[in-house]
Specification:
metal ion binding, EC 3.5.1.98, metal-binding, Histone deacetylase, 8 strands, 14 helices
């Protein structure tokens, strides 16, 4: 049982890492509905690029074992999970009250195979955490995961199950401290809320702030009780470019790694922060986005890479393909190889795309103020917190179901993750999406969101129970939050 930072052996950044990659061939078939910007098909496009660039042969390729009810209920409420399992497009009109209660409808529609989709993407993230906990890889990748808006009892922002929280809970079985970093354009509100009152998880989110979904993530939102200063929010404005982004990212994350000393890192790589995203308003290049992955990799700490947002799907596939190469320490060619989705990438058929000439509304003065404020907050953490373990909770029972892999994929024969051959996926109807609909005046997601509900003590209690740390009692003062405090933080 590790009690320190559990860093990998120090090595130059160019040294190869052992990478586990989770992918289910069915994930691209799930379809949110006509005109909906979230398209799981992008995961299949990413996988095709990885195959034809020859990257799969450098990784262990695993089909995720679907998460079960009890796995999802380590964070989510039982009745919410039961609802997701039972609701179908044919029956939803009979459950209007529950649809409203669980925020399922417009942004988070009911579609064929919804629950199987949740089981698949959550299974990949938790499976990656299990692999890292057992030192079976240095970096685990699940591009289908990273759905950071889902809450304990409700869906939000295209997200139904919060696979990130579930993966972090799994990592906390082995590591005293886990760092969560979010480079999606939207605030990682669901993850922050889940760990807002604990010092064992630090959350750092870089996001667009101000009249933008979900409306949370002010620089003054810093955590509460034992979790005070363990939530960091980096609010950004339209048009931020690579240089401005890294002016904040590297000093802040560098200080976080120095002060917090995490045993493992989870990096949510939402690609809607790229230039030209259908719902986004940032101006990052693929190389600029991937520089965050490269920087986190350089610390030689067990790393879980997850997907997230990203709505111009050809650029999402480009980005996550390139970042897989970064994880492996392999520079991939800009010229794209021929593959089944080649026509999506015309007219240039290259991996990289140039940023636009949009205005950067983030002034150097504003960036310096944000950096100074966050570094000041970090300076208040004198040393990394320590946690006394009495007994380590058992690992989640998530073996992988062996996939029918083709000649382009490589299955590592030395992989020793157990396979539960008695359990099979329940067949579900899914609609297959082939093409990306054209842009057509879609909602740009500029909606006011419900503010972070740090007073939801059930979230903190759920995490404490899931960790099963019987020697550590929750201090009532640290989980009861008065509304006045919330109001003060948001003024």
């Amino acid at each position: 049982m590790d009690t320190g930072s559990n860093s990998l052996p120090s090595a130059p950044d160019g040294v190869k890492r052992k990478v586990c990659y989770f992918y289910d061939p069915e994930v691209g078939n799930y379809y949110y509905g006509q005109g909906h910007p979230m398209k799981p098909h992008r995961i299949r496009m990413t996988h095709a690029l990885l195959a034809h660039y020859g990257l799969l042969q450098h990784m262990q390729v695993h089909k995720p074992f679907p998460a079960r009810d009890r796995d999802l209920c380590r964070f989510h409420a039982d009745d919410y999970v039961a609802f997701l399992r039972s609701i179908t497009p044919e029956t939803q009109q009979d459950h209007l009250r529950q649809l409203k209660r669980f925020n399922v409808g417009e942004d988070c529609p009911v579609f064929d195979g919804l629950y199987s989709f949740c089981q698949t993407y959550a299974g990949g993230s938790v499976g990656g955490a299990v692999k890292l906990n057992h030192d079976q890889c240095d970096i685990a990748v699940n591009w289908a995961g990273g759905l950071h808006h889902a809450k304990k009892c409700e869906a939000s922002g295209f997200c139904y199950v919060n696979d990130i929280v579930l993966a972090i809970l799994e990592l906390l079985k082995q590591h005293e401290r886990v760092l969560y970093v979010d480079i999606d354009i939207h605030h990682g509100d669901g993850v922050e809320e889940a760990f807002y009152t604990t010092d064992r998880v630090m959350t750092v989110s870089f996001h667009k702030f101000g009249d933008y979904f979900p409306g949370t993530g002010d620089v003054r939102d810093i955590g509460y009780g034992k979790g005070k200063y363990y939530s960091l929010n980096v609010p950004l404005d339209d048009g931020i470019d690579d240089e401005s982004y890294h002016f904040l990212f590297k000093p802040i994350i560098g200080k976080v790694m120095e002060v917090f000393r995490p045993g493992a890192v989870v990096l949510q790589c939402g690609a809607d922060s790229l230039s030209g995203d259908r719902l986004g308003c940032f101006n990052l290049s693929i190389r600029g986005h991937a520089e965050c992955v490269k920087y986190m990799r350089s610390f030689n700490v067990p790393l879980l890479l997850l997907g997230g947002g990203g709505y111009t799907i050809r650029n999402v596939a480009r980005c996550w393909c390139y970042e897989t190469g970064v994880a492996l320490g392999i520079e991939v060619d800009d010229k794209m190889p021929q593959h089944e989705y080649y026509e999506y990438f015309g007219p240039d058929y290259t991996l990289h795309v140039a940023p636009s000439n949009m205005e950067n509304k983030n002034s150097r003065h504003l960036l310096e103020e944000i950096q100074s404020k966050l570094l000041e907050n970090l300076s208040r953490l004198q040393h990394a917190p320590s946690v006394q373990f009495q007994e380590r909770p058992p690992d989640s029972d998530l073996g992988e179901a062996e996939e029918d892999h083709d000649g382009d994929e490589t299955w590592d024969p030395d992989s020793d993750m157990d396979v539960d051959v008695e359990r099979e996926l329940v067949p579900s109807k899914v609609k297959k999406e082939i093409v990306e609909p054209q842009l057509n005046g879609l909602d740009d997601q500029r909606r006011s969101g419900e503010h972070l509900r740090v007073s939801d003590t059930a979230v903190a209690e759920t995490c404490m129970k899931a960790l099963d740390i019987s020697s550590q009692k929750a201090d009532e003062d640290n989980v009861k939050v008065e509304q006045n405090t919330v109001n003060d933080l948001t003024k």
